[in-house]
Predict the structure.
Amino acid sequence: MDVVTLGESMATFLPGRPGRLADVPSFDRAIGGAESNVACALAAFGHTARWVSRVGADGFGDHLVERIAGYGVDVSAVRRDPDRPTGVYFRTAGDRGTGAHEVAYYRAGSAASAMSTRNVDLAAVRAARVLHLSGITAALSDTCLDLLRALTAPGPDRPLISFDVNHRPGLWRTAEGPRVLLEVARHADVVFVGEDEAEQAWGVTGGPEAIRGVLPEPGVVVVKQGERGATAFAGPGRSAGADRDRATASRPSAPPPSGPPLTAAPHAFEPALRTAVVATTGAGDAFAAGFLSATLRGLPLRTRLRHGHLFAAAALTAPGDLAPPPARDHADRLAALDAG
Ligand code: KDG
């Protein structure tokens, strides 16, 4: 597998019209889940991707597994829980970053929230060049947090760990969330975090450099700066330069890394693309997928950011979380264009 992702997915109900949850009369069923979103985008782009999770033995569980498999994602390690339901959530149309955004989760006690080191196939999770995780899992339950800690612990069979902070204040049952997210992020090799998210969670206000300052260990830190763009730092973290080598190793069909070594580009900024935004939810997952795809292909840091933006632009123009990324040859041509 190129990539394995692990996390909860939910039946997602998208509003039929703008307005408060209290006023919206009808919703369309879709699928949501940060980690399965990443797997779907990568599989749609031609990578091998597996999503690992637990869902209920119910219709929404069937729907999630069938839809995610429909993107070409391997779902063979998804387990059904006969006693716990599949999680569900409703959201409004407003932007996540604004006060107009409302989310109603019905996921406490869900099948995925009971994930643990004992009921998840750890070998299937680790059998990848990249394992993508997110801070949402840390918030679901103590057993999920233990699982996350086990997967991010140093070890000989550890794949490259990608971690999207995904701070969801509404999910945390304690005030420990920000501290736990920082702890887990420090154990990862590639970290994605929003500039606004870092301020909200950790009180870091000094921009990308200051965020890198609180996350010196990961080989790569990507700071997403909303519609302005994104900044990536590579090295001198714990795995400087090693991320690309580990991610591209043992892939017979992968072209040899063609860009300069990461240490030649210790950081890079790329502006975001201008798009007619329909809904921002899922754009961060798409960005992570694009960046990871380019990492797997051994592309230089700036090109990774460009692929992140290209994938995100596709998701931004769809009402749900997911939109297929551009075809690979098209994305490569677009990523090679110089702005201006
Ligand atoms: O990134 C999109 C996700 O936030 C959405 O699909 C729902 O996974 C989700 C969550 O837990 O918020």
Q: What stands out?
A: The chain has twelve helices and 14 strands.
